[in-house]
Structures
1.
Amino acid sequence: MRFSPVLFLLLLLLLGTAPSPLRATSFDEANAAFASGDYAKAAATSQELIVSQGSSAARLYHLGNAQFKLGQFGPAILSYERAALLAPRDRDIQTNLKAARQAASTPASATALTWWRMPLGWLSLREWSFLTVSGLLLVTLPLLTWAIAGLARRPWLRPAAQASLTCGLILTVPGILALTTRSREKTIGIITAEKPSLRLSPFPEATATDSPGTGRRVILTDSRPGWYYLSIEGSTATGWMPATEVSPLFP
Amino acid sequence: MVTTRNIRSTGVPPVRPTFHSPPGFLLGLLLLLSYFATPLLHAAEVTTTLQPTSVPAGEGATLTITVTNGTPTAANKPEVPDLIIQGPNQGRQFSNINGVVSSTVTLSYAIGSMTAGEYNIPPFTLVIDGAEVKTESFTVKVTPSANQAPAGMAPGNSSGNPSPSGPTLAAGETDFGFLTIEFADKTRKHAWVGEIAPVRIRAWIPDGARANLNARIQPEGSSFTLHNLSERPQESREQNNGKNYHVVSWYGGLSALKGGRYAPDLTLKLNIAVPDPKGGRQSTGDPFMDQFLGRRMIQKEVTLHSKTDDSTKLEIRSLPTEGRPDNFAGAVGKFAFGRTTLPTTWKTGEPQQILTEVTGSGNFTLLKQPELLPAGPWKTYPGQNQFAAGDAAAFSGTTTFRFSQVARQAGNPTVHLSFSYFDPESGTYQTADSPPQSIQITGADLAPEPEPAAAAAQPDKIKEPENPLAPQRTRDSATASLTPWAYTSGFRRFLTGLSLLLLAAFSWRGFQHIRQNPARLARAAHAQALRTALSEVDTYAGRGDVPRFFAAARRALQVRLAPRYQLPAHAISLADLTARLSGDSPVVQFFREADLVEFSRPDPNAPQNLPNWRALLNRAMNALT
């Protein structure tokens, strides 16, 4: 059997993301704590699980649920938003995110999507990354075959190469479009503090210019040690906020 | 066509206008006089403007008196207590509009005050061309400055006179200076938890000392917090116990965190250098001169402490729980509604912008957005608030709230805004209400929301909805990095690697294409055949083998001629050459010699002729180059 790099990559990806029995213990612990009403323990266990073993949509979702029950709506919105990054079509995550925003009286994303951008949000950025890489490999393989082996001398390879090239382009073009247009999500942050203050300059003593609500989406445009310069989405307010009061969506 | 013509001087001088003739001179003088005398023929006109009419304390407005067609010879400015009038700055301007000449004299005065209030500026008295003219009177409003001392607190003494409020200190306490705290309300000996008491903090540094502040003033312990310390301290020279001090004053707000009786202890770290009292020489009073004259200075990093004796102790009282309104959020002070804008026409489901100002003094940070009453089917969205400080300690000022409210039921209710605060003077909770206003709400009634409207009005006390959450998961999902691979450096490396791989593959493909080109291969074979034939020519010439010399030489010439005649090399014969070349061509001559040697018996002396044949071959080859 010939070695296939695409199959090897897929295998690696599956092995790397499969839940292991070891992880299930803490996950079940967090679930049990939540069921018993010990939301603080549920949140702490979920947080610990994420820090020690990585993020998953379910863990972030559970962390958000526990934070919601504790009345920490800003951190809950951040957890749901992060969970939605990994599972954008999950209705439960969207439902709870909406509930958390309502509870915190925080508006949803103020940016209206144009018709052609909407399909780009159906998949997660991770899924778009995978499709783009697959597409690039499908485009590259026939080109490499043609360059090295020469298709003229191997006519039986020609239909396969054409199919691979077409599929590759079909995957790559929207993939690159999605990754490019959604790259601004890298600068998005969520206000997690209960009483955040937007300040004129990056010092604790600086004049507070605004007090946006918890859970608000912000655009992080600059940073200093311990401070972010940000603008509130859907508002003209800009200013500095301590890094303890706001968290970037991509940690 | 362009023609040019040389113009030569005729020697006649150019005619220039002169006033030599009496009528011309008089005419010119008359015109000049009329130009300057015209303004005098018109009556003088005085206008006065004040811009702006409201200024912060410490800044100035400009009062401009414009005298048209007149010359003021004297201007008496009025005197108003606490009002500073500086000037005038005088300017003059002539203008000529449609032949009408006018002159304008402008007198500018800077008017301001260090004390907030409304000042009436009486008329200025001007003497214009011998006649007295009075300007109109104005009113200027001086608003509190952001750098002004809080109400009830006198500004720092900057005149150098002894301060009546200077503290009494024990001997030896003043080597490096000290801190004092003065409360605005000196009569009150108690404060409430959460109340911000405006204070003046003063650092007394011995005169002649040089001090560098290392840090800001900090409260010691956890009983008090210090708010809004003024950024720009005031400086003055004052005397205490017969000793001169350089006094640096800050304004701020002290707030107690717990009940009890204790004195606020503040510290200030500074690096100070004072003249050594045992240094021998008399101080000049000038640190630079002291250093120059060799007077010894003692430099030390010191922490100045505020006095904490019984006289500075305050009784801190906890806020009463009795009578605490539901909407009380911790604001302690005195507040009242200012300007309030409520829309009069509403439609159910559509948010309406409400703007209201709350003015007063106290801890504005705990003042929450007023609520719309009577409580009913409203939905309130938290809005924005903006605080404008009225003094350096941000103790007094105005907070402007802007928020949206949605009516859920139609009707014509009479509504008002309301908030609660604790009045520290009376020790009671107070509720402030805006003037009631009737509004008209049209549209269809909306279904009641699951969340109570009160919860929406108080974002800090949000009640959790009954069960708004989707259920928990029973199984964990696959782990993944939150940052997609496409936004990592690994993806960039992958793209670079892929590009390099394609580049290498296409380079190799191009190299192969070049290598297998038939034309290039034919050229190479042709060059190789020529090299072989010429090599054989040399070999056989060296051996004296005449027939083989000629065979190799003929082949070399045939190889050279083949691409030119588009014929196979071996097919080119003497007949082809004679048909194309002249008879005396060295190529034809060599072919003749070669045929002679090949088809006739070789001459025994032939080897001796080889150098000549070789030379002929060289000429033939050169002829074909």
2.
Amino acid sequence: MIETAFTPWASLAGGVLIGIASTLLMLFIGRIMGATGILAGLFQPSSASDFAWRATLLAGMVTGPAVVWLFSGKMPAVETPMSTVALVVGGLIVGVGVFLGSGCTSGHGVCGMARLSPRSIVATLTFMTFTFATVFVIRHMIGA
Amino acid sequence: MKLITTYLIGVVFGVGISISGMANPAKVLNFFDLAGHWDPSLILVMGGALATTFIGYKLVFGRSAPVFEPNFNLPGSRVIDAKLVGGSAIFGIGWGISGFCPGGALPALGTGRWEVFAFTIALVAGIFLARLLPNVGARQEEKDARIQSSS
């Protein structure tokens, strides 16, 4: 386990920026800012223009860390206190789950909750509960 | 114009994820570790994002249509079924193992760290795997009614 410091202001500012981006995507192209939907649709676009907005949005997302580096001189921290096997197995499980559940933290947890969608409220409560439980099992029962 | 706009929206999202800590699995997992060195930062990420989007959507849905499209494209399904709950539970387990959610990992690709690429390739493989399961291959969006917001 790696200890991390409580960062209230940076996290709040980051959250507000995520909210601004979600609002702007709805304002300009009428879409939910959901990472799962944007990524899954990229591999099965309904048209060339459908592919284009997803690809440019994704390109913008990937530019984010470099912009932070330009202004702060530091790349955002990415610390992975788990084995590569856990990272890959976790990634596979996340992929299956978000596809079946039709969304993740951004789509259900932010955009769907903001629309007071009953599906998104149920989805968010469910995945948050299972994430808490999984971390408890891994860290305090298995002791990894 | 539309594609420059979506690119810039992606940058705002990517910067937001980067400074919030959502791109850092150690920080994400410490939020979920109530019995360990708890880091409550993610409450502020979720709270800030949710409150901003809630207000933002209220303003946006006052319009009859988005700027570049004729209609708002909102998920129309209202069904709470085993697929939604089961899929979300599976996602929670994977998030607890890896510390990455899709929205955290995609911007984090820009750090160039191989761990993020390993996760993201597995994530995409998982999405393709789920598509192979019977009765779930069709795109949810195609099944959802394309409704225009009237609120």
